[in-house]
Amino acid sequence: MIELIISDVTDSATYRAIARELKKSGHTVHFTLITDEANPFTDWLLASDYDASHRVLESRLSLVNHWFGIRRHLFASQPQVIICLGQIATIIGLSAALGLQSSWRLYVRQHSTTHRETRSYKGQLYDRLSNRLADHIVATNQNVLQSLCDVEGVSRDRVTVIYLGIDISDFSNPDEPRVIEVSKRWGIDRSKTTIGMIARLTEIKGWPYLIDHLVAELQKSPHLQLVIANAVGDLREDVQSTLVPVRNQVIFIEYEPDVAALYATFDVFVHIPVSPTVEAFGLVYLEAFAAGIPAVITMSGIAHEIATNEVNCLVVPHKDGVATVSAINRLLLSASERQYLSAAARKAVSQFDITDMAVAYSNLFISWSKRRSEMH
């Protein structure tokens, strides 16, 4: 039996693909979901004939109760493999499985140096504890691998690298009715030129270094509109306050399920994390490239492996709002350059297919399940 414990998720094409692939394998799989409330992913999993249970986080006391409940479940079901995805799931799942000799404990590392760069001592403690409790770790790219092995001292033989993937065909060619629906839902005026950003409103995503320059640019150019998706985070009030002078040109989106259609409303995409490693993977790099949206970026996460300045995107220095706006304007003024970068970007991500990713995860989990069964 394979047990997946998942938390900190609203919806995830990645998790859905892994679930489908495991189901096709015919192995016995159980999902434990830990979320604040029901959401599109939990609803999909529970409604799609998967063996799953949902534990709602109502308070810290409920977290303790869930730990004991999950521990009882694990000792009763005796899974060969326990896979944890999400911070809460990792701490609860790995610790609840202590003493369960028949199980192999694994977690998927979805961040790199964030806790060190933000000086989150609680986060760094979480990293050390997770690494110690796990028998094996999945890193989502070379950046995360280096953080684990070179910075945190994890042995290389305890880590498997499996790159994230996306549905490339969906991002490259979303149906026009979907694009129209997303535009109407959020009031995106497609007659205007749209700068798109999909980044939480936090310091590590570069907002403090860009926002004032964006305001100045929007004030000079009434034909521009700015769309900010995933617009949550500790800087939300500050960003919204700064954008008040151009509020009629700005659209905030907290959550949009049809991300592929949303990208199709952008003319230029901007993503500028503050350091080379703070972005663990940066799925938005893949998405924007697959969608063929000319991009202005800083190098972080997977960008190191797919992005080439002036070949498939424009790369700007970290924490440099002036250079970022200058690069945006350069793209907006040159249709030929946008077209060239768009075509090259699509080619750069052609190998990151979500089906290949899901098969790699499924094969890893199943191989260890068989190995554990043979040992016990």
Labels describing this entry:
17 helices, Rossmann fold, 6-stranded parallel sheet, 376 residues, elongated, 48% helix
Q: Mind explaining what this structure looks like?
A:
With 376 residues, the protein is α/β, with parallel strands linked by helices. It folds into 2 domains: 2-165 and 354-375, Glycogen Phosphorylase B (Rossmann fold), CATH 3.40.50; 168-348, 3-Layer(aba) Sandwich (Rossmann fold). The protein is built from 17 helices and 13 strands. Strands 3-2-1-4-5-6-7 form a 7-stranded parallel sheet, sandwiched between helices. The chain has a 6-stranded parallel sheet with strand order 10-9-8-11-12-13, sandwiched between helices. The chain is elongated, with a radius of gyration of 21 Å. It starts with a strand and ends with a helix. The mean pLDDT is 94.
Radius of gyration: 21 Å
Through-space gap between termini: 13 Å
Estimated helix fraction = 40-55%
Would you report the number of β strands? Answer: 13
- Determine the CATH topology of the largest domain: Rossmann fold
CATH superfamily of the largest domain: Glycogen Phosphorylase B
SSE order: EHEHEHEHEHHEHEHHEHEHEHEHEHEHHH
Shape: elongated
| Class from secondary-structure proportions | alpha/beta
Give the overall average pLDDT.
94
Q: Kindly provide the name of the CATH class of the largest domain.
A: Alpha Beta
Domain module tally: 2
Strand order of the largest sheet: 3-2-1-4-5-6-7
